[in-house]
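PT: before anyone asks, these are the final sequences, not the draft ones from last week. 390 residues across everything. Please model them as a single complex and drop the result in this thread when it's through.
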Amino acid sequence: MTGLTTTASLIYLISAFCYVIGVHLMRSPKTAKKGNGLSFVGMILAVIMILIEILVSGRVQVGAWIALAAGLALGIFYGFSKAKRVPMTDVPQLVSLFNAVGGGAAAAIGAFDYMTANGHLPLVLSIPVVLDIVIGGITFSGSLIATGKLSGKVSGKPITFPGSKFVNILVVIAIVAAAILMITQVDNSWYLVLALLASLAFGLLMTLPIGGADMPVVVSLLNAFTGLAVAFAGFVINNQVLIIAGALVGAAGTILTLQMADAMNRSVANILAGGFGTDDSQSVSPAG
Amino acid sequence: MSEELYANLAIFVLSLLVGFEVMSKIPSTLQTPMMSGANAIHGVVVVGAFAIAAEANNWLLYVLTFFAALFAAINVAGGYTVTDRMLGMFDRKPAKKEEDKK
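LR: through. Structure below.
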């Protein structure tokens, strides 16, 4: 390791430490705010370090700087102002929106690496790339529908249509086929498009039949999915802080989902089967 | 299996275990803030947006870089801000009524 990569690795380790301790502190109302602050410190450290790394590499094209800076500036402005202004009652849909974009970012990174692979990607990279695109795509569209349902823009009622099971199966087959094609033939962008479209469709089909009252559990589940997508992005770009933070969120989100479902006296499978929840506020408790 | 892959896999599995461990038995009032806090943490994907920017060299890749940066930045900035606001509600309860501390 050179001096820079050693420093970078250590900084990423400190950053990961901040996330774990931050989440730990968030377990109690008294220290929760401090925990979130610590996790933010970890985030800033990681961003400063990667910025130094790509500056030193000196390989970044002007166009890429513009794209990066414009994306960051717009994103920070939009995210910050949305989060500052939202009424407390509308927070769940906003969290779901932030989760959607996180999944979208992971999918974009996966797509980028597939397209820059020049027809050759070893299996240990092509598998996480494909998982990134598929999971990222599912969380992106699924979380957007969840946002819509929670905010009332999409009907909170379970939306089903005849033959939906059959369509689901077709979409899953399309995802698996596209994934296999992408792994075996790296140079065809159409497979990437197919995988992305099928994943987006699956996200829609997965969340539409679920009632508004069950949405928070689904948002939590999709949150865990995004965590995993981010961890796979870490494998792709070989960056450990993404792997640690992503796996942490993936596991924590899974446990949280189980706890939330438990609090409603439902199983996660039962919620995902859909068709139970009611319009927004009225809660329903099927005999179970 | 290469050493690098093994190291990454080990980190992945151990981090999963840490995640399971750290999240067991949290009070239900903290479930939503916790979800939001975890959501902010996966905003670390922004590091990936920087990393791909270093490799981008044509317009299509610039567009992908732009969207990765835009999405990740929304996730980070929005996630931490909204979590902080939510947790601010806990601060206020035991204190006096409307004490805005800034």
